[in-house]
Write a structure and sequence with these properties.
The chain has 13 helices and 12 strands. It is α/β, with parallel strands linked by helices. α8 links the parallel β5 and β6. The strands form 3 sheets. Strands 2-8-7-6-5-3-4 form a 7-stranded mixed beta sheet, with helices on both faces. The protein has a 3-stranded antiparallel beta sheet with strand order 9-12-11. The termini are far apart.
């Protein structure tokens, strides 16, 4: 009988993947967080051109210099943060970025504060790194600085912040981000800021904690912004003392991100951005259709200010998600995102308007004890 490490044996397969792989062939998938719109043509053209020119070999480990230069300009333009090209590592998706950061920062016994509910990878990757995961319950589906402060210990090494949020769609305010930065300074821990949904904001503004402190690692990707999920192209930015250590892990885990994917990302970041605005408006319309449909079914749900998810409270999220799957509507039970998500389900509105309307029809008749959640629109 083979013996496997506890750090792997004790984690489970993502609930998102479980629901996706168990779906009926005629199911409407409101579970997977992936834009259904086509990738902009100029990005594909750049990738094809790179292949034809033979740009299919290794790149520098940190990424192509021209891509890191473009990302440096992007951080200043879009995030009001000065980051030099040498403070950026291009990775195989945001997933690799999260992995190498946690491997470099977290020792066995260190505490990692994560949103609860929060993205499924945070707890698993922290556990693999040997960290002790501490879930921070959300207030109105967003991280609250006071609640975070209550859970800081002398062993706290990392706080993960995700805005806009998966699974909740919440957008953290400037005041909240500044408060997180002040806590990081006061207690000497690092913020990992997951900003992959930064351009999918319908109300409010995107604020990076890197505006306020150097104790932060910013993680991002081209996946959601440019409908490039399959390209697996992400990046991280941090001060030099971080980058030196992250690069050690990156070079053995990945060596470098894919060369063709990097050329595609360069075209995405430096090319026209009207495609991003168009995609955001499509998702805003779909969000509103799904919200109206849920309301007609008697399910009240806060209006998400960003990303492309709804996170309604339905009572027993596991039961509701299973019953909906039986009716051909794939959702994700909120328990997949943490103990405090168990009364919720996550619905992604990246499906077409027609599929969303059909899904709402199929949802009728499933017992869901929708609860109106007071407080700010998130």
């Amino acid at each position: 009988m083979r013996s496997f490490t506890d750090r792997v044996s004790e984690i489970d397969i993502s609930g998102i993947r479980k629901m996706f792989e168990a779906a009926r062939t005629d199911s409407i998938n409101l579970g997977l967080g992936e834009p259904d719109v086509p990738m902009p043509a100029h990005i594909g053209d750049a990738a094809v051109d790179a292949i034809r020119r033979g740009h299919t070999r290794y790149t520098p480990g940190a990424g192509m210099p021209e891509l890191r230069e473009a990302l440096s300009e992007k951080f200043l333009r879009d995030n009001n943060v000065r980051v030099s090209p040498d403070e950026i590592i291009v990775t195989a998706g945001a997933s690799e970025a999260l992995h190498i950061v946690l491997q470099a920062l977290v020792e066995p016994g260190d505490d990692v504060l994560i949103p609860d509910p929060g993205f499924v990878s945070y707890a698993a990757l922290s556990h693999i790194a040997g960290g002790r995961v501490i879930g921070v319950p959300l207030v109105d589906l967003a991280l609250d600085p006071d609640v975070v402060s209550e859970r800081i210990t002398r062993n706290t090494k990392v706080l993960i912040v995700n805005s806009p949020s998966n699974p909740c769609g919440s957008v953290q305010s400037r005041r909240e981000m500044q408060a997180f930065a002040e806590l990081a300074e006061d207690y000497d821990f690092t913020i990992i800021s997951d900003e992959v949904y930064e351009f999918l904001i319908y109300e409010g503004e995107h604020v990076s904690p890197a505006e306020f402190t150097d104790n932060v690692v910013t993680v991002n990707a081209t996946s959601k912004t440019y409908a490039m999920t399959g390209w697996r192209l992400g990046y991280l930015a941090a001060r030099p003392e971080y980058i030196e250590q992250f690069h050690k892990v990156h070079q053995y885990v990945q060596a470098c991100a894919g060369s063709v994917a990097q050329y595609a990302a360069l075209a995405a970041i430096t090319g026209p951005q009207d495609c991003v605005c168009e995609m955001r408006e499509q998702f805003r319309e779909r969000r509103d259709i799904l919200l109206r449909g849920l309301s007609e079914l008697g399910i009240e749900c806060p209006t998400p200010a960003g990303a492309f998810y709804l996170f309604p409270r339905v009572g027993d999220g596991d039961r509701v998600s299973a019953e909906l799957a039986g009716r051909g509507v794939i959702t994700v039970p909120g328990s997949s995102f943490g103990a405090h998500g168990s009364e919720h389900i996550r619905l992604s509105y990246t499906a077409s308007k027609t599929d969303i309307a059909c899904a709402i029809e199929r949802m009728a008749g499933v017992s869901m004890s929708g609860v109106s959640i007071p407080g700010r629109s998130v």
